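Pasting as-is:
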Amino acid sequence: MQLTLFKAFQSLKLDDDTATKVVEALEEHIAVKIKEANAGLEAKLNAVLWLLGTMTLMLAIIGTTPVYLKLFG
């Protein structure tokens, strides 16, 4: 995509430096928009990972309960 945009800007008689700056600015804009669009998904993923960790801890505690009761019960 970069090369295509660069060539399109050159065909509009923009000099190389200006065409490069425009392409870089557009890339930066796209990266920001992608990050904004993914923010909600990242939040949900973090919530799911937290829940998974909590469940794992609970299962570990439940799994060690018989050992605890046998030793100290």
